[in-house]
């Protein structure tokens, strides 16, 4: 599905805490993309109406309040046992959980291998008792393994109706793993996007979805598949219902679709459409009591960016195209899913384009248009943190360092606790040769997020350039402790051992460890 998300990137990754809003956000994240149902239960004695009202004035959603804790589905079960049992069988109810033998559907003996030709890396999924792993390795010309890295699967994401994605945990942080299980084809393959940019085991699970934009399907010949909700809104059925037709018209969020008889969906369609009024002359038409509305008007089709997966087409049409396979377009257009026309619309659209540029490297003209939209939007909303950050990052990517510095300084002035803003400002200042100022910005970022391995490693390098070897070593050691699989930190420790201590034996250990983590690290 082509759903483009604008993230709140104050933290580079989200650290797991089962009692925190971070855990709740991750647990609910994929369900939200599938039209999730959010429920929050709170004891009457703990409620404070005045505090709630005050919080509502400050936050878009009360579940983002720092004091809000995660409430599990089990809390609902005592009062709503039947709904709870049924919900646990739905896709949303099976969207995030630790792996176990009882919920295992994958085949670890066949089709459990994928190969990334661009990186020359092999991947396999294996099971050892109750634990699951993904293995990365490289072969030489004689078929011998010259590199091997094993990572444990800590969490499963997805119901398995179409596929499952997997997360590994390291020092409390979550990272997406390279392989996905594709249920319909019963095979393992690379995660969507990994075939173009292989993150290996370092793709971080970040914070919270803020806005949703989708591919504009109005271009002739463009059949890119967006979210089910967006496709539905293109339907004449939706338009003529004046917005009354929605997800729950056909789907009970507490009931698995597979348990619903096809006749139910037909009856839902016939609540608006009379059989007598429907065409009977078309060769493919079966407009009678035994017909199947969904099979003809909502056929199965492939997605444009998720291999091995078919989805039901939710753009209800009289005569859908025979082939629903999505086709890529050279210059996709984005549009606000909600169609809002307020003063911040241009700013939000521009930020979505900038994120799309990050992900897909679209045409330069679109990137320039995005810069214009964001700059124009900031004139109306000069304190928009996300807009300032995005514009600064875009200028940095273009090498326009002075303008990037200006945006990040403006951001930090209004949001001193913006960890990533401080980090990016430090990178800009370092690039400009203003090393002492860069050190201060890195230190500010680390006061907010002490386990930012990128900031720790770069600050350590800066200290070494300034002749402050003790401070540099401290940064490298903290970085390797925060993320033991971070190859640059181990490489930096190796360089420190060579140049600061002339300890070649220790240096070799660190260099070899960095190469074990990343065989292409130079």
Which terms summarize this structure?
alpha+beta
Fold blueprint:
Layout: E1 3-7, H1 21-33, H2 49-58, H3 81-87, E2 96-97, E3 113-116, E4 121-128, E5 131-139, E6 145-152, E7 155-157, E8 163-170, E9 173-176, E10 179-182, E11 187-190, E12 203-204, E13 209-215, H4 228-233, H5 236-240, H6 247-250, H7 262-270, H8 293-297, E14 300-302, E15 310-312, E16 334-336, H9 345-360, H10 364-380, H11 385-397, H12 401-414, H13 419-431, H14 435-448, H15 453-465, H16 469-482, H17 487-499, H18 504-517
Helix pairs in contact: 9-10, 9-11, 10-11, 11-12, 12-13, 13-14, 14-15, 15-16, 15-17, 16-17, 17-18
Write up this protein.
- This protein is α+β, with helices and mostly antiparallel strands and 522 residues long.
- The protein is built from 18 helices and 16 strands.
- The strands form 4 sheets. Strands 2, 7, 8, 9, 10, 11 and 12 form a 7-stranded antiparallel β-sheet that branches.
- The chain is globular.
**Unreliable segments (pLDDT under 50, ≥5 consecutive)?**
1-12, 18-50, 52-57, 208-212, 217-225, 322-330
| Main sheet characteristics | 7 strands, antiparallel
Overall geometric form: globular
Number of strands: 16
Overall pLDDT score: 78
Indicate the percent of residues in helices.
Answer: 25-40%
Number of helices: 18
Cα separation of the termini = 36 Å
Structural class, please? Answer: alpha+beta
Oligomer: single chain
Strand content: 5-15%
Q: What is Rg?
A: 26 Å
Short account of what is shown:
This protein is of the alpha+beta class and 522 residues long. The protein contains 18 helices and 16 strands.
């Amino acid at each position: 599905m082509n759903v483009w998300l604008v993230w709140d990137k104050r933290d580079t990754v989200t650290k797991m805490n089962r009692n925190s809003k971070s855990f709740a956000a991750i647990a609910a994240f994929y369900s939200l993309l599938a039209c999730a149902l959010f429920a929050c239960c709170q004891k009457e004695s703990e409620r404070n109406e005045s505090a709630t009202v005050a919080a509502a004035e400050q936050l878009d959603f009360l579940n983002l309040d720092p004091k809000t804790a995660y409430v599990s589905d089990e809390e609902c079960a005592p009062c709503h046992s039947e709904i709870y049992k049924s919900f646990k069988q739905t896709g949303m109810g099976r969207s995030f959980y630790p792996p176990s033998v009882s919920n295992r559907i994958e085949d670890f003996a066949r089709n459990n291998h994928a190969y990334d030709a661009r990186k020359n890396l092999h991947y396999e999924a294996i099971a050892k008792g109750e634990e699951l792993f993904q293995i990365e390795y490289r072969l030489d010309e004689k078929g011998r393994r010259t590199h091997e890295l094993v990572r444990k699967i800590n969490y499963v994401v997805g119901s398995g109706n179409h596929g499952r994605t997997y997360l590994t945990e390291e020092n409390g942080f979550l990272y997406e793993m390279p392989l996905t299980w594709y249920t319909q084809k019963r095979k393992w393959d690379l995660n969507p996007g990994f075939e173009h940019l292989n993150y290996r085991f370092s793709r971080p699970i970040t914070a919270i979805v803020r806005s949703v934009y989708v591919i504009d399907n109005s271009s002739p010949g463009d059949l890119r598949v967006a979210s089910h909700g967006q496709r539905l809104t293109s339907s004449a059925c939706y338009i003529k219902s004046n917005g009354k037709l929605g997800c729950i018209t056909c789907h009970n969020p507490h009931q698995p679709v597979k348990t619903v008889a096809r006749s139910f969906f037909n009856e839902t369609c016939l609540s608006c459409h009379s059989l007598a009024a429907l065409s009977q002359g078309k060769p493919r038409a079966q407009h009678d009591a035994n017909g199947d509305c969904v099979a003809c008007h909502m056929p199965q089709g492939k997605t444009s960016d998720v291999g091995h997966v078919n989805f039901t087409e939710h753009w209800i049409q009289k005569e859908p195209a025979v082939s629903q396979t999505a086709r890529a377009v050279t210059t996709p257009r984005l549009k606000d899913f909600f169609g809002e026309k307020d003063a911040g619309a241009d700013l939000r659209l521009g930020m979505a384009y900038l994120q799309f540029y990050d992900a897909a490297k679209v045409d330069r003209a679109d990137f320039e248009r995005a810069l214009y939209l964001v700059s124009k939007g900031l004139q109306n909303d000069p304190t928009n943190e996300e807009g300032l950050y995005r514009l600064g990052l875009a200028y940095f990517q273009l090498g326009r360092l002075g303008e990037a510095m200006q945006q990040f300084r403006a951001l930090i002035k209004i949001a001193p606790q913006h960890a990533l803003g401080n980090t990016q400002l430090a990178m800009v200042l370092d690039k400009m040769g203003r090393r002492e100022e860069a050190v201060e910005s890195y230190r500010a970022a680390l006061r907010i997020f002490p386990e930012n391995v990128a900031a720790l490693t770069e600050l350590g390098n800066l200290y070494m350039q300034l002749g402050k070897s003790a401070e540099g070593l401290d940064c490298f050691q903290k970085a390797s402790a925060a993320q033991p699989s971070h190859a640059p930190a181990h490489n930096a420790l190796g360089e420190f051992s060579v140049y600061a201590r002339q300890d070649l034996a220790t240096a070799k250990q660190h260099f070899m460890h960095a190469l074990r983590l990343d065989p292409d690290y130079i």
